[in-house]
Specification:
The protein has about 350 residues and is α+β, with helices and mostly antiparallel strands. Helices cover about 25% and strands about 25% of the residues. Strands 6-7-12-10-11 form a five-stranded antiparallel β-sheet. It has a four-stranded mixed β-sheet with strand order 1-2-5-3, with helices on one face. A hairpin with a 6-residue loop joins strand 18 and strand 19. About 40% of the residues are buried. The structure holds uridine-diphosphate-2(N-acetylglucosaminyl) butyric acid.
């Protein structure tokens, strides 16, 4: 079969933060015409996978999917009123660089999400969150390309189906929506979000914290706790923190008093998966070329030379041990490109 002109076969090892070997057919998306071409290919039966920064994906070596790589760029102030700035960023921008640029241009509010790897377009897919803030708390809207329908759609925050590390975009699979741009509403009355213990107790944030000081503190905490993907391949938290009903949590609390848990709005309790994994004996432990990180047991790391099967084997072993010991089923956070 003849390939369409813009599709090239590419090595994706440096396009996934786990550093897994992968080669796939790639279509670069630099304008809406490319999105239309993608829809035509999907319509003709090609399976499509939209790739952002590759920081939340486990890639097989020879994926059958056509990979759409989003390379749209640009950051602009859309409007401002007395209460807030509304800022729009194109999906291909680096998330961390965007947060930094917002601070430099005088639009604070995203600083708790500093240093999260990946792109702006990927951020709503898993509703990124860290250090007391989740993306949906600042989101004003998403412009997305509906791949099967072949048209652009503006989605209000309420249309995006956000939940903890989840959204409509994630639930519908990586072949349904291509995010083109994301809009944020950043309140002019800035208040630091310092609920997370490591920030509350941070010396640089005592007294009058500034947005830049919060940004720097978040970067410092992340650098201390989480491995840098450029040095040690990883995809951040490999599992979600499981949410269980109150009755299950009570039973667990009685048996395991040290297990950290956090009350949720729906009455359930979120358990610290890192604690469960550590107690199951997996912190710092390896299985072949992969292992669970020695400082943060929730992060699966590639010590060198791993492929997707190694990652999935370890993740299954961890899942089974946690299930056997605590009766809690862990759910994988990254998606599989196969
Ligand atoms: N813990 C352990 N052992 C470990 C790791 C953690 O006992 O090896 C305990 C900690 O002592 C703490 C609790 O688990 O009491 C929570 O740990 P931490 O504060 O490090 O956060 P987390 O729940 O493991 C979540 C997010 C991170 C985010 C941090 C900070 C998820 C799945 N992960 O991690 O997000 O940066 O909170 O807000 O929600 C990501 O999603 O990729 C990610 C890195």
């Amino acid at each position: 079969m003849r390939m369409a002109p813009d599709i090239t076969e590419q090595d994706l090892r440096s396009s996934n933060t786990l550093g897994l070997p992968a080669r796939a057919a790639v279509l670069r998306i630099r304008d809406e015409a490319h999105a239309l071409a993608l829809s035509a290919l999907a319509d003709a039966g090609r399976e499509v996978f939209v790739l952002g920064g590759g920081s939340n994906v486990v890639m097989r070596e020879r994926p059958r999917h056509l990979v759409a790589r989003v390379e749209l760029r640009g950051v602009r102030l859309l409007r401002e009123d007395d209460e807030a700035w509304e800022v729009e960023a194109a999906a291909g921008e680096s998330w961390h660089a965007f947060v930094d640029e917002c601070l430099r241009r005088g639009w604070p509010g995203l600083e708790n999400l500093a240093l999260i790897p990946g792109t702006v377009g990927a951020a709503p897919v898993q509703n990124i969150g860290a250090y007391g803030l989740e993306l949906d708390q600042r989101l004003a809207g998403v412009t997305a390309w509906d791949i099967p329908a072949g048209r652009r759609v503006d989605l209000a925050p309420g249309d995006c189906g956000f939940a903890y590390r989840d959204s409509l975009f994630k639930r519908m699979g990586a072949g349904r929506w291509l995010i083109l741009a994301v809009r944020f509403r950043l309140p002019k009355t800035w208040r630091p979000v310092l609920d997370y213990p490591d920030l509350r107790s941070h010396p640089a944030l005592a007294g009058a914290a500034t947005p830049r000081a919060v940004f720097d503190a978040v970067c410092a905490v992340r650098r201390r706790k989480l491995p840098d993907p450029a040095v040690l391949g990883n995809a951040g938290s490999f599992f979600k923190n499981p949410v269980v009903p109150a009755a299950v949590a009570e039973d667990l609390r009685a048996r395991f008093p040290g297990l950290p848990m956090y009350a949720q709005a729906d009455g359930g309790l979120k358990l610290a998966a890192g604690w469960l994994i550590e107690q199951a004996g997996w912190k710092g432990r390896r299985l072949g070329p992969v292992g669970m990180h020695e400082r943060q047991a929730l992060v699966l790391v590639n010590h060198g030379g791993a492929a997707a099967d190694d990652v999935l084997r370890l993740s299954e072993a961890v899942r089974e041990d946690v299930l056997a010991r605590f009766g809690v089923a862990l759910e994988r956070e990254p998606v599989l490109l196969d």
